[in-house]
Amino acid sequence: MPVQVDQWQRNIAPYPASHRGIRDGGAARSFAEAREHSNRHGARIEPKITEADRLKHRRERAHTEWKYKMWSAGCRLPTQVANGRSQCYGGAEIDSESGGWHIAAEQMACE
């Protein structure tokens, strides 16, 4: 890449607000300039993020953390078992329908 071209890429796309087009990005000549742009543009995006966006993000993060804990403990997810029933690493019986409630109670309570 030529040195006269902006070298630092920045992207601000908070999930799930980014699915509604709430995002920003661009290029900058230096890391400091990219960071300053990110801070300024991030502050402009922040008021557009709703409480529903924040809740959806927390649920997605909790599900991902739970999934990795399950795999680390050698447990299968209900979707990985033919009958759709499994046992959580904590011992609770779960199935495809109760899994979401279990994850919310288990993981989001820790926040």
Brief descriptors of the model:
2 domains, 41% helix, 4 strands, 3 helices, elongated, two-stranded antiparallel sheet, 14% strand, 111 residues, alpha+beta
Could you please describe the fold and organization of this structure?
- By secondary structure, the protein is α+β, with helices and mostly antiparallel strands.
- It has 2 domains: about 10-50, no CATH class; about 50-110, no CATH class.
- It has helices spanning about 30-45, 50-70, 100-105, and strands at about 10, 25-30, 85, 95.
- Strands 1-2 form a two-stranded antiparallel sheet. Strands 3-4 form a two-stranded antiparallel ribbon.
- Strand 3 and strand 4 form a beta hairpin.
- The longest helix is centred in the middle third of the chain and has 22 residues, at about 50-70.
- The termini are far apart.
Short account of what is shown:
With 111 residues, the protein is an alpha+beta fold.
What is the general shape? elongated
> What is the alpha-carbon Rg in Å?
20 Å
Number of strands: 4
Helix and strand run: EEHHEEH
Count of separate DSSP helical elements: 3
Q: How far is the N terminus from the C terminus? A: 44 Å
Alpha-beta classification: alpha+beta
As residue ranges, the low-confidence spans are: none
Largest sheet: 2 strands, antiparallel
Q: What is the residue-mean pLDDT, rounded to a whole number?
A: 86
As for the number of domains, it is 2
Helix content estimate: 40-55%
Strand adjacency order, main sheet: 1-2
Strand content: 5-15%
